[in-house]
Each structure stands twice: as structure tokens, then as C-alpha cells.
Amino acid sequence: MDDVSAIVVTALEERLADSYLMANQPRGLPERVADKAELARVCRATGVPHPTTVIPESGAEAAAAAVELGAPVVAKWSRPWLLPRAAGLRSTTLIHTPDEARALYEHSGRAGSRLLLQRHLAGGRDTDWFFHGCFGEGSVCLIGGAGRKELSWPVGTGLTAVGTWLPNEEVEATSRKLAEQLGYRGILDLDFRRDHTTGTYHLLDFNPRPGAQFRLFTDGAGLDVVRALHLDLTGRQVEIPMPRPGRVFVAENYALLSGMATAAAAAPRSRTRPSARTKRLYRAPETAWFASDDPAPFAAMAAAWLGRGGMKGLRRLRPRPTAVAAL
Fold first, then answer.
1. Are 253 and 291 in contact (CB under 8 A)?
2. What's the CA gap between 255 and 29, in Å, rounded?
3. Could you tell me the sign of the dihedral formed by the alpha carbons of 22, 225, 210, 45, in that order?
4. How many helices (H) and strands (E) does the chain have?
5. Any idea of the CA torsion for 277, 278, 280, 285, to the nearest 10 degrees?
6. Are 16 and 22 in contact (CB under 8 A)?
7. 286 within 8 A of 250, measured Cβ to Cβ
8. Over the stretch 174-205, which tens digit does the pLDDT of each residue have?
9. 268-318 pLDDT tens trace
10. pTM for this model (two decimals)
11. Can you tell me the distance from the alpha carbon of 161 to that of 143, in angstroms, rounded to the nearest whole number?
12. Among 289, 119, 313, which residue's Cα sits nearest to residue 204?
């Protein structure tokens, strides 16, 4: 369920083949598309829209690129799974000045991968989309769909807190075209952002694995991308999907945080009540954690969150040590 696992499984395919059924990806493909710098090259080669990206070779080049791209600039480490925890570096950062770009480049030696600078596409309503799909032999799409992020955490940049399954011909066609040109087989999760100025959907991330909200795209017969892959790899037929656009996915914990942050940011500007459209988003959603027949995951998540919140509260209440005068 993460990029590292997808990369390792493909690298160990020969050793695992006797015990596991796998999608037999082209060698090195998961690592190639998960690498942010390589993804930019893949998009150029396949004609898929992608934000203008610069890979600087020095601090001076990083500063110059920040000026050329225009502030703010998105800075990414190409292989975020290699970032040392102790380094204190974030996989993606929004920078505003050439000096910030130069300073960030100086951490390249301990980041484990290259720094890339990318033109920032402004977010907003209807700009963030995703595609989940399962592809069989010949990169034929067995099941898939496009969705729109309604709320994310962190707000405007992070993972999907609330998402809706909505048909989007451009996102779906681009995703199928890319999978076909790469010879992709298996499950993928793609993130897109629409450019306000051109209306074009740009590919931001390619995750060669199931995304956290893959259950959003469950059809009328209960088929999702994981079940489709299992049927395909065990030699059984995958029936023609029965799409159910309009379904809603909610990650309860992140939706709460994102909703509170969004409401707080909007409060000074408007005191209007939630729209009918916003209310409809929360009717009979596909929840990430809660299920009436298996409440244990939700309870574990809630306990973990309350525990972390309690520890943070205790740290804030704990009296700070006072300096003792020397005798």
C-alpha cells in the first residue's frame, strides 16, 4: 500500500514468483514512475501534461530556477521514501524566494535523491482530481474511475479527506493512454491538478499501487480494483463494471481536521450556511475506518488519535524548567 512496497515487490519478482501471483510489471517501471524526476521525463515522452519542472545541479541553479518559475515554487525530493527521518526534510515544500531554493538544495547530500523545482498550479474548487484503475494483460483497463477531491489534509495540498466519484473524460482518457504507453499492468493511483489558465489537467503523482480511497470506486456488484486484480491474476473473468458515480469517500479523522480548518479560514469572509451541494457529499459515504460489522479499526484509530492529542496537551501543560541562579 505504499510506493516502497511496490518497488521492492517488483525488484524481488523472481524470488517471489513461486509463492505469489503478481502483475508482472515491466522491469523497473514502479520505481521509474514513483520517482518524481523520472515521472517528469515519462510525461514528456508520452505527451501527458505535467507542470514545468527543473532539476538543478547547484544552489545557484536552484535560485535561478525559482526566479524563472515564479513564486511560489513547489520543491520536491525525487525519491521521498529515501529521506532520513532525522533529516527533518519534507517530501514536498512550497518555497517563495531564491534564497529558500538555494538553501534547500544544500540538503541534497543527506536527502538521498535529487531536488526538483516545479511550477506551482494554484488550487481551488474543482482543481484536484484522481484516477484509480486496474489494468490487465495488454494494459486493458478492467475497472477504473475519476474522482474529485472535495477536502484534503493538509488543506489544498494533501491526501483525500473527502472525495467524490465523478466522470471526467479528460482525466480518464489521459490515465488509460499513459498506462497503455507504459505497458502498465496492475493497480495504479494518479493525482491530477487542473490549470486555471488553460483548463488542462496536469499529472502530479503516479502511485504504482492502490490508493487509500480505492474503495470509492466500488461498482454495483461490489467490484473494486483489488478484487479485479485478484480475479485477473487467478485466471477468472472480470465482468463489465457497473459504475456508480456520485459515491463519496470520507476519511473520518482527516475530514474532521480539514473541515474545521476550511471553516475557520472561511469564517472571516463569509457567514453563509453550508450549501445543499456540500450537505449531499456526506450522505451514505464510503468511510475509511468505520464499518458496522467490524468496528475495531475505527476504535483503534480513535484511540490512537486521542492518545496523541492527550500527549500533546500534557506537554503544553507541563511547566517549563526555570533557570537556577548560580550560587
1. no
2. 33
3. positive
4. 12, 11
5. 140
6. yes
7. yes
8. 999 999 999 999 999 999 999 999 999 999 99
9. 554 444 444 444 444 568 999 999 999 999 999 999 988 887 666 556 656
10. 0.88
11. 23
12. 119
